[in-house]
Amino acid sequence: MDAWVEREVEACEFPDRRLKSRLGILMTELGRKIGGSVPAACQDWAATKAAYRFFSNPRVDESIILAGHFAATQARFTAANGPVLVLHDTTEFSFRRIKPEAIGQTKVIPVRQSLHTICGLLMHSSLVVTPKGVPLGLAAIKFWTRKKFKGTNALKSKVNPTRVPIEQKESFRWIENMKQATEQLADPERCVHVGDRESDIYELFCVAEKMNTQFLVRTCVDRLAGLKGSTISRKMQRQPIRGEHAIELRDNQGKVSTAKLRLRFCRMTVHPPIGKQKRWPSLSLTVVHAQERSAPAGREPICWKLLTNLPVEDLAAAIEKLDWYAQGWKIETFHKVLKSGCQAEQAKLRSASRLTNLLAMFCILAWRVFWLTMVNRTMPEAAAETVLTTTELQILEDINLAGPAPSKPTLNHYLTTIAKLGGYLARGKDPPPGNMVIWRGLSRLTDIHLGFELRGRVVGN
């Protein structure tokens, strides 16, 4: 078992200790073959069969598998200083199956004048990151699938969605994950829960206030605010521009451009929707609007409308909140590593319970790759021994793709060598290594590591 795997499974509590041992072995094997299938990682039929029995075991589920990682995340959170961001988002996993009913469905799409059901699972994840973007780990994960569709759009003509209790809606997952993450991290005042427009849920704001934790969400609803039926947008139109802030954007072709945003912010009383005013109280919240006056051709002007229970007293505090919201893209990157690096949607397991067990393990592996990528960018001078084993360091020194090691080799030197194994060119104007070259390099390093361990052995006569 690799040292990092041992840390991530240490706090797992299985009803049988052999299951914990098997989890560690599987995590190590899958971590050494990122993107490979279960048979490719296990190498032989006996180990592969043991893996399939583990995924099918009724005493194993994703909560037990992730419990150790959640505890390790909490330890890293405690060691960090200051506020920490908890990024929330949902993603879908699609699979092709002859019998999709064993897994479930995610959505229905029109195809050639007919409807096609997508087989798959949904996952709502909560990723803990520092304000600089270093992922500390996951604090909550929720998997689910849809057995049938209730025709939400068709029901809107008969039922007012705002009058349906939040507990009966699928969006309740946002509140569940916020509760679980806050309780897991055990320091609610340091947590800032960040979400996109899908998280603009009034009940979430009230629960955050009740738990004494912080939130920062992008709004999609012009809520009631102030007196005499006024709204947030009307009150913000009367606010002066407090200053400008420039941010860098990168398009799909990698071209970088700068956008100048004009900032307004104001503390105001925000009221619940009319149908919920008997159950939920009004809240004193801060609204931050960041709008781009004009945008280059081919791109819509940026318009961020943020809502938070954090105080914003000056321009510097408003810019800080924008920077925190911009870190929300990190969870999209995590999902990309999960799907493209771990090849999660290529899994061949045939039931939802087996797939969620495998996906839970992939989540830990994806975090590991993402963490290596970001720690290389934010702490390049850190000691390499904190991340890599002595044998791995020796192998990387012998490979020497990043040039002669300095007198005091840093983490950046060794991770650059790993990235070069994955195809990173390290040219003068190249950005730091990304997740893709890191996970490719780790897979190649595993193969080289195997050859290193076999050196000197006599095979045959």
What does the model show?
There is one protein chain. With 461 residues, the chain is α+β, with helices and mostly antiparallel strands. The chain has two domains: 84-340, Transposase Inhibitor Protein From Tn5, Chain A, domain 1 (Alpha-Beta Complex); 379-454, Transferase Inhibitor Protein From Tn5, Chain A, domain2 (Orthogonal Bundle), CATH 1.10.740. Helices cover 40% and strands 20% of the residues. It is globular, with a radius of gyration of 24 Å. The protein starts with a helix and ends in a 7-residue tail after the last helix.
SSE layout:
Blueprint: H1 3-9, H2 17-32, H3 38-42, H4 45-56, H5 62-79, E1 84-94, E2 105-111, E3 114-129, E4 135-144, H6 152-155, H7 172-185, E5 191-195, H8 202-210, E6 214-218, H9 232-237, E7 243-250, E8 256-270, E9 283-292, E10 303-308, H10 315-326, H11 329-341, H12 352-378, H13 390-399, H14 411-421, H15 435-454
Parallel strand pairs: 1-5, 5-6
Antiparallel strand pairs: 1-3, 2-3, 3-4, 6-10, 7-8, 8-9, 9-10
Helix pairs in contact: 5-12, 7-8, 11-12, 13-15, 14-15
Organism: Blastopirellula marina
Domain Transposase Tn5-like N-terminal: 1-60
InterPro entries: RNaseH-like_sf, TN5-like_N_sf, Tn5_transposase, Tn5p-like, Transposase_Tn5, Transposase_Tn5-like_C, Transposase_Tn5-like_N
